[in-house]
Q: What sequence folds into this?
C-alpha cells in the first residue's frame, strides 16, 4: 500500500514540475517594451497624457481625499512623539495618549 502512495505522490510531483517549468513559455514575451520590465501599453483609444484631463479617463481626485493619509500619518507621528517623551520622563511606556496628559 505504501508503494502505491509513493508512486502516486511521485507522479503528482512530476506533473506539477512539468507544468511549473512550462509556465514561463506562456508569459508575455515583451515584444513592445520600452526597456526591460516596462511593457505597459494603453488600450486602443486611451488618450495621451496631455489629453486625459477632462476626458472620461480623468480620475478627478479630490484634494481632501488625497490628503487624508498624510493627515493621519502626521497625527500618528504626534502621538508617537508624546509616547516617547512620556517614556523618557517616566521610564514606563503608556500606549493610550489620553492617559499621558492625565498624569
A:
Amino acid at each position: 500500500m505504501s508503494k502505491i502512495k509513493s508512486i502516486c505522490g511521485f507522479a503528482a510531483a512530476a506533473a506539477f514540475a512539468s507544468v511549473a517549468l512550462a509556465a514561463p513559455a506562456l508569459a508575455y514575451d515583451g515584444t513592445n517594451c520600452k526597456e526591460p520590465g516596462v511593457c505597459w501599453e494603453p488600450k486602443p483609444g486611451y488618450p495621451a497624457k496631455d489629453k486625459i484631463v477632462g476626458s472620461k479617463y480623468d480620475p478627478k481626485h479630490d484634494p481632501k481625499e488625497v490628503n487624508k493619509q498624510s493627515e493621519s500619518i502626521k497625527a500618528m507621528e504626534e502621538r508617537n512623539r508624546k509616547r516617547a517623551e512620556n517614556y523618557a520622563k517616566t521610564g514606563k511606556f503608556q500606549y493610550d495618549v489620553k492617559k499621558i496628559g492625565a498624569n
